[in-house]
Design goal:
Growth Hormone, Chain: A, globular, cell membrane, MFS_dom, MFS
Amino acid sequence: MHTRGGVLRTSGDGPVEAPEPRPTRLPLVVHVLALGTFLMLTTEFVVAGLLPEIAGDLGVGVARSGLLITVFAVGMIVGAPLMAMLTLRLPPRWTLTLALGVFAAGHVVVALGSSFALLLAARFVTALATGAFWAVANVAAARAAGPAASSRALGLVGAGGMLANVIGVPLGAFAGQLLGWRGPFWALAVLAAAAGWLIARTVGRDGAHHHAVSVRSELTALRSGRLWLVLAACATTTGGVLAAYSYIAPLLTGRAGIAAGLVPLVLVGFGVGALAGSLLGGRLGDTRPHATIIAAAAGSSALLLAICLLAGFAAPAVALIAVLGFFGLGANPVLISLAVRYAGQAPTLASAFSVSAFNFGTAVGSWIAGHALDSALGTTGPAVVGTALAALTLIPATALARTQRHRAAPPVL
């Protein structure tokens, strides 16, 4: 007999629920959604490698041109829940296709624009579309894969974003140096249009059905205490890792003695680790989600502490940063999966808030780390901040595990 979460089998004590067998292959739509997240994360971080060229062309300072990154992060924090609510009654295929269309149009505006204010506005609107895409893509991927493989599907969607740090961002920066900084934005616009066409052809066909719910029903998800624990873990785990990662270049050049030209290769190592961690974390999260989160938080804290202590030695520092990518971002698909699960009949808003929580943690962690960099701690300051934030993840992660254990415990007769 089938139930909502599995199959009923009988034993000597009566019927018990057995989990559904995990599918060997994920639906095509999950891979297409991963392509979308690859484009989204590429555009978020590719600007970092093009700031001098943008600043010189527009006649602004490099520090001011950095606002193109800041405004995108703010747009993601605000845009994910806002756009998720505004597009709630639209079928997922429409929302995803529309988001990619706005994403492509925003990049065309950036590629053609000559006003810095116009570029800031275009980046903000693009971030709103990115937030809408990411929130709905998580739900669509989880539904297409089914409960038995939802974390694995989210791991693949998240891996598309991790792959951006390995391929998309370095390739975009290299292309910008060869063809001018506007070239990567033209390329992203074309790729987004192609991804929108693929989304329109695959989401409905692969069975990501639309379940119409009201705004009021979605807002009831915010009453879940477990959901807020998940969101807290989203903010602290990502905030801790990216607080250190955002200022890893001064640490590598100032303390470890690594040449500035080799820093991008170290960052690629971090990206490869993050990609592997996202894929493996997604697989483990389907069977042992809470253990995966706790292990990732503990591993990240230990690695960041080791970076603080061994930053003066080049080889250990490089190795630790690569492994940090594996542990530091490996739990993200599991956290998104739990947020969607604990939201019950209102998964879209929960997915959107998880995206906002990741970006909120990144913004706050990086801000604190910047102040630590100017303190007496110097170049190790951001890693110290990251260690503390990552360790805080153990609090909500342990609380979630204890809550789950109490719910699973048999009643006392």
